[in-house]
Amino acid sequence: MAAAATGTGGQTLGRSSFSRAASSKTASSSSSPTASGVKLGPNGAAFVSSGIPDLDRILGGGFLLGSVVMVMEDSDAPHHLLLLRAFMAQGVVHKQPLLFAAPMKEPRSFLGALPAPVASSKEDARQRAMAGGAAGDGRDEGLRIAWQYRKYFGDERNSGAEHRDSKQEFSHDFDLRKPLERHLLNAQHIECLSTQDVDTLHDLQDRCSAFLSKHQRKEGGNLSAGRIAIQSLCAPQCGYFGKDWDMVSFLRSLKAMVHSSNAVAIITFPHTVLSDSFCKRWQHLADTLLSIKAIPDEDKDLAKLLTGYQDMVGFLHVHKVAQTNSQVPVILEASTFSLKLRKRRSLVLERLNQAPVDGSSGPSSGGSGSCSSSTQGSQLDF
């Protein structure tokens, strides 16, 4: 009986080799170090936050490390700067190296427009707990028995708290009305470049190559993420405006360099200044493709009369999502989201609520008699 209960080496037969291998694998994966602001996903994928928690959830975890993100600008409103500011601010908060290029004389002045993170709920709860402990002296006599059982479930509670804290550290909510603290902006890991002074794209390519060489992908090492933000790449203010093939060549080389590094590059460009053929080439080179559309002026007056539409400033379209190391494609719950500014300080993305469409009536033309015509022309009657 004793031999049946135990195997060779004193191992219990109740445990299988599969469970032992899984436990050792979990322990090794949990002990692997990751840098601040980097989240490990399925199939060995790593993500950095976009600075917008809703956008991270939509994209399946955030911006894939080693990918190029492109945002098509809208000529009516500069709403693309909201995404760019959140992306840059999130990297500065995590102390991740940043390379910023923009068609302005002093691009470092744009750093003053980066928003500050909102105080986390953990700090508020800690302050409330400290205040309650100071005011409630002598009132915790009935909780002594509960403290005795802390050793039985303390590990699970601590692990859950650490898991929640890691989520909060990965992505922050930013207050667009408060600027980022200056001591974070004065760090040495922020580089700025004016594309007005760049006559050829070789200079910009050399700066990107030197920046990405510091973040080469290494197996088994600590993941350190870098961020590249390029604003209005093909704007008329740039010194290389009109050189379409040179810009396509630059995008190809940048994509190749980013794919072999631990960095994410986000590029905003006014697609209206490009021809249709070159605009399609740009879209094909993007790993993640987004577009921003502002609400027309004639619809803003109507939005004031509708509940829930007062804070809406535009729409976000998701055209393409970067593929991870998996054969399963990313299926989005929606491709168009409303871009809202709640209380003019927090950026929120919400899926648009659409009314059900009658399949027998075909595409609606918006006419007043569409309901009566659809009921008369319906062939199926249940």
From TrEMBL:
Transmembrane segments: none
Keyword Cytoplasm set for record: yes
Domain of life assignment: Eukaryota
Localization terms from the record: Cytoplasm; Nucleus
Pfam families documented for this protein: PAXNEB
Major location (coarse): cytoplasm
Associated pathway: tRNA modification; 5-methoxycarbonylmethyl-2-thiouridine-tRNA biosynthesis
Protein name, UniProt field: Elongator complex protein 4
Compositionally biased region (Low complexity): 13-36, 370-382
Keywords: Cytoplasm, Nucleus, tRNA processing
A GO CC term assigned to this protein in UniProt: nucleus
GO BP annotations, alphabetical order: tRNA wobble uridine modification
Record has tRNA processing as a keyword: yes
Family: Belongs to the ELP4 family.
Span list, region Disordered: 1-37, 355-382
